[in-house]
Design a protein that fits this description.
The protein is α/β, with parallel strands linked by helices. About 20% of the residues lie in helices and about 15% in strands. It contains eight helices and eleven strands.
Length: about 300
């Protein structure tokens, strides 16, 4: 949603690395990774399935019995989706249900992720977004993490966020719109308006993600791409319940399910672009990409 990525100091952000719940996995999620997969992220292990696919309209989940790990890239390779939307309203409840406008009212020009993770995301944008693309950045703020030359190389760059002051400070945008996507899920743009839509570490605040992903599909041009980037930090009081009950790899699977149930997208893919660790410096925040292209007409 248009919830800002800059509402607390970096120290106020927390790691969302919560323990796995076998009951949750069995009732909610399901994927089937390849047997040789490895991971440096949260250690989901592959193995036999517990529960039944589609049980009570929910996901069945493959969890580890064999000691092997799966990679970020494997999470969305062989999903087994239930026929209908598997989530309940409770999954999108939050600890703080007060008006989002109050929570995000005070401008704070701070970063949500560390410099290394930002650098990895900026590099990814530079390598994968074609020149002259029209870009929409949803849940935008005072910085979009685009390469510095994007204002010269790209087409229009529109930000949609909640805080007017923050958006006005974003030099990478050519225009912006102030809107709370948790109240109004309809984008103020015509069909087929953009080549790329981005959402940086904010999908966990959307209480109506299906409608938002459907809107993204509507405003993207055929073949256009929705790039969702995610780390492991959040404002816990405003993050949705299902997010706080799950870990990094589950988050990727949840985002992949949003793409699937929204319709209009090719199958989503996931990538781990976290900078490699060095013995000479501390590790960076993780950075994951979950993306899909709008289907061609």
């Amino acid at each position: 949603m248009a919830l800002r990525r800059s509402q607390a100091t970096h120290a106020a952000l927390i790691f969302a690395s919560l323990p796995l719940s076998s009951a949750f996995l069995a009732s909610k999620l399901g994927f089937f990774p390849s047997p040789k997969a490895t991971s440096t992220a949260s250690p989901f292990q592959r193995g036999r399935i517990i529960g039944q696919e589609g049980m009570a309209g929910r996901f069945a989940r493959g969890i580890s019995m064999s000691g092997q790990r799966i990679s970020v890239e494997d999470v969305l390779k062989n999903p087994k989706w239930p026929e209908s939307w598997p989530y309940s309203p409770r999954d999108f409840s939050r600890t703080d249900e007060s008006e989002d406008e109050y929570f995000y009212d005070t401008p704070r020009l701070v970063y949500h992720i560390d410099d290394k993770a930002i650098g990895a995301l900026t590099e990814y944008y530079g390598k994968t977004i074609p020149e002259k693309s029209d870009i929409l950045d949803i849940c935008s703020s005072w910085v979009s993490h685009f390469p510095k030359d994007f204002p010269q190389k790209m087409g229009k760059r529109v930000g949609l966020g909640m805080n007017e002051f923050e958006l006005s400070k974003n030099e990478q945008l050519s225009e912006f719109v102030v809107q709370n996507l948790n109240k109004n899920t309809k984008f103020p743009f015509p069909d087929n308006s953009f080549d790329v839509v981005t959402c940086v570490v904010s999908v966990d605040y959307l209480i109506q993600p299906l409608q938002i992903f459907q809107e993204v599909a509507r405003v993207l041009r055929p073949g256009g791409r929705f790039i969702v980037s995610q780390s492991n930090r959040c404002f816990p009081s405003k993050a949705i319940r299902i997010w706080l009950d799950t870990n990094d790899l589950e988050h990727i699977f949840i985002i992949g399910s949003y793409f699937h149930y929204a319709g209009g997208f090719n199958p989503a893919q996931a990538f781990d672009i976290t900078p490699k660790r060095s013995i000479f410096s501390p590790p960076s925040d993780p950075m994951y990409i979950i993306q899909a292209e709008k289907k061609l007409l």
